Amino acid sequence: QLQLVESGGGLVQAGGSLRLSCLASGSIFSINAMAWYRQAPGKPRELVAGVTSGGRTNYADSVKGRFTISRDNAKNTVYLQMNSLKPEDTAVYYCNAPGTGSSWGQGTQVTVSS
Fold first, then answer.
1. Across the chain, which distance is largest between two alpha carbons, in Å?
2. CA 64 to CA 30: how far, in whole Å?
3. What share of the chain is helix, strand, coil (3-state, %, to 5)?
4. Cα-flanking dihedrals φ and ψ of residue 31, to 5°?
5. Could you report the per-residue pLDDT of 47-80, keeping only the tens digit for each?
6. Backbone phi and psi for residue 106, each to the nearest 5 degrees, phi listed first
7. Cα–Cα distance between 82 and 113 in angstroms, integer?
8. pLDDT tens, 82-110?
């Protein structure tokens, strides 16, 4: 299991950018796939983007072309670069390692104003 700490959220105007970071500890980070999720008020948590240990990525249709997930194994960190943000991107963003049973962190709030 990994312990996960997200950061980098904030308030931004529509069209702006943010970069989220997730620092992982407690296991061998480099062998795990990692993913970013988000949960908006009143909605279930959804997968936003994932990256395998080998660097292959996948994205939700709603963020393709705007968000980029990346990882730095030397720093045990996964990033989410978010460009062209929309009000509907407003949510708490979480990272996790699918399939490892890792607990959810506290998340980081992203608020996009119109």
1. 41
2. 24
3. 10, 50, 45
4. -90, -5
5. 999 999 999 999 999 999 999 999 999 999 999 9
6. -80, -15
7. 15
8. 999 999 999 999 999 998 889 999 999 99
